[in-house]
Predict the structure.
Amino acid sequence: MAITRLAGFLVLLSTHCYITTLAVILKSANKSPWANEFESIELSCLIESITTSNPRIEWKKIKNGELSYVYFEKKISGDLENRAKIREPATLVIFNTTRSDTAQYRCEVTAPYDPKSFDEILIDLVVRVKPVVPRCSVPKSVPVGKAAELRCVEDEGFPRSKYQWFRNKEEIPEDPKSSPKFFNSTYTLNINSGTLVRSAVRKRNAGYRKARNGGRPCILSPVMMRVWVNDINVAGIILGVLVVVVVLLCITVGICCAYKRGYFASQKQTGNNYKAPAKGDGVDYDRPEDEGDFRHKSSFVI
């Protein structure tokens, strides 16, 4: 019995010594926080255990591979100066966040009198930026059977916006085969680039389109657009061209015939231009009645 009590005491003593010699250990309530632009955000850095009464606390910002100080020697510095503070013991609070605050933040605590004197924790902060009204490119008219590309894009929203398209107030699915109403439709929809391409426009495709930014705390108001489908009668166009060609051909033939018949002669003969034929020898020849249609063509002298 005595041996058992002694063993239990040694285990308790050993456990007590282990607790009192723990090194500095950090934890965070949220390692991937996010905030809407111009709101406040708290980057949680909690000291779980430490024996040093006055540890050194530092915050560093890492963005695009570059490191800069945020909190050093008990002062806020850098682009967060006058926009942040330390909440004891080591939590960083940022006020009026901007899109430039999106980065990785590293909390570092150094405790010189602890067996393990250093620990750090990395926090990824994302500041969401409300999207703006997208710039839309829509054709004014599209021939039936031709492809039509509709595009909407905006560059302000962060993270990058995703786009939704609607026809007659009903959302167009990314995959037409996933919806019975759009199963026979032929289009390509890219929710990341905001592009909707219809491979063959038909009359019933004419109608309203709207695009909005989705998946964000701040949702963009819909933008309304109308696509008019221009129904072109190809057979009618060909027939009209043939009629014009035939008319032009008839006019050309008529002009040629008029030239040949002298309707466009430069000089016209009139009564004033007529000249009587001269007499050959001054002798008048009486034409007998029995001569009939015989006429002298020249005079003979015997």
User: Anything to note?
Assistant: The longest strand covers residues 118-128.
